[in-house]
Write a structure and sequence with these properties.
With 64 residues, the protein is low in regular secondary structure. It has no helices and no strands. The protein is rod-shaped and about 110 Å long. Keywords: Plasmid.
Length: 64
């Protein structure tokens, strides 16, 4: 019979399992889009026969 004044012996605690070796994960590679979503496509000036609208002069000093 155990003595009530003595603490009970503790069973040995189980050891944690060994940790596996750490291998870093490679970064996730995403395909490069052809253009960014916020980019507005700019027309090729060689393919557009009209001059750009912002280039048309409203006042021409040589037409006086």
């Amino acid at each position: 019979m155990p003595n009530p004044r003595e603490p009970e012996p503790k069973p040995p605690s189980p050891q944690p399992p060994p940790t596996p070796p750490w291998n870093p994960e490679p970064p996730i590679e995403e395909p490069d889009p052809e253009r960014l979503p916020d980019e507005v496509p700019v027309p090729n000036p060689d393919e557009n026969p009209e001059p750009p609208r912002h280039f048309r002069p409203r006042f021409n000093q040589w037409n006086n």
